[in-house]
């Protein structure tokens, strides 16, 4: 908790989020918050936490991102020492005040601050921006596998594992099978599949079928 004579919170929905290089459009942002959620709220990404996601989610991490807002220093702060304090930033960032660097930080769970007494005036308006660094290139392979194609959008198969008994009932016929479910985007673009098991299981000459349901309807 910050202990100070006066505290002026800069949290809120009046921030702007921009992608360095322009790969994504500039959108309204909320702090505290995160880049992916702001992009989803602005419909620049498909829903992240249900359905098939968005294969561009990992692409977000390949760019630098800047949070910006204007703020006014209260007039009653004249003659006071003024510090700009952060509860946390994930992961590495540079902080700018009126276009000039005032702090750099690395570490998701560490608080940090900068003394801006000599850089601001009571009753004046200033521009604050926080530039978040993109992920290191050596991590791209792992982020793409976990957040990109193969984990949601673009995934051709969803897998369900289970023990299935051969219909012949022959001794020792119980095996561990991979059940493959192929779903088109028309079944997934408006939400998660519910009660999903398998469409078809092939085992030797035998063939078994099952049904999947989306929002209570068979698909």
Explained architecture:
By secondary structure, the chain is mainly β. It folds into 2 domains: 12-44 and 65-133, Galactose-binding domain-like (Jelly Rolls, Sandwich), CATH 2.60.120.260; 157-218, no CATH class. Helix content is 11%, strand content 36%. The protein is built from 4 helices and 14 strands. The chain has helices at residues 35-41, 57-60, 140-147, 185-188, and strands at residues 12-19, 27-31, 65-72, 83-86, 92-97, 100-106, 112-115, 125-132, 157-164, 175-182, 200-203, 206-209, 213-214, 217-218. The strands form 5 sheets. It has a 6-stranded antiparallel beta sheet with strand order 2-1-3-8-5-6, covered by helices on one side. Strand 11 and strand 12 (206-209) form a beta hairpin. Residues 15-144 form the Beta-mannosidase-like galactose-binding domain. This is Beta-mannosidase-like galactose-binding domain-containing protein. InterPro entries: Beta-mannosidase-like_N2, Beta-mannosidase_GH2, Galactose-bd-like_sf.
List low-pLDDT spans: 155-167, 169-219
Corresponding CATH architecture of the largest domain:
Sandwich
Task: Give the radius of gyration.
Answer: 26 Å
Could you give me the name of the CATH homologous superfamily of the largest domain?
Answer: Galactose-binding domain-like
**Could you describe the largest sheet, including whether it forms a barrel?**
6 strands, antiparallel
The secondary-structure class comes to mainly beta
Query: Would you report the number of β strands?
Result: 14
In CATH terms, what is the fold-level topology of the largest domain?
Jelly Rolls
Individual helix count: 4
């Amino acid at each position: 908790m910050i202990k100070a004579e006066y505290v002026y919170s800069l949290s809120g929905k009046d921030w702007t989020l921009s992608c360095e290089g322009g790969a994504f459009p500039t959108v309204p942002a909320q702090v505290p918050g995160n880049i992916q959620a702001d992009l989803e709220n602005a419909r620049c990404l498909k829903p992240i936490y249900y359905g098939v996601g968005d294969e561009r989610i990992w692409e977000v991490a390949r760019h630098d991102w800047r949070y910006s807002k204007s703020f006014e220093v209260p007039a009653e702060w004249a003659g006071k020492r003024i510090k700009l304090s952060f509860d946390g930033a994930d992961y590495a960032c540079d902080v700018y005040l009126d276009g000039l660097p005032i702090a750099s930080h690395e570490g998701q769970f560490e608080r940090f601050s900068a003394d801006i007494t000599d850089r601001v005036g009571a009753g004046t308006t200033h521009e604050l921006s926080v530039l978040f660094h993109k992920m290191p290139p050596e991590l791209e392979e792992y982020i793409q596998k976990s957040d990109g194609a193969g984990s949601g959008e673009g995934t051709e198969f969803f897998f369900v594992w289970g023990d299935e008994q051969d219909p012949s009932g022959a001794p020792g016929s119980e095996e561990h099978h991979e059940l493959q479910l192929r779903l088109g985007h028309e079944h997934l673009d408006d939400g998660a599949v519910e009660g999903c098991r398998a469409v078809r299981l092939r085992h030797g000459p035998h063939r078994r079928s099952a049904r999947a349901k989306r929002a209570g309807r068979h698909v």
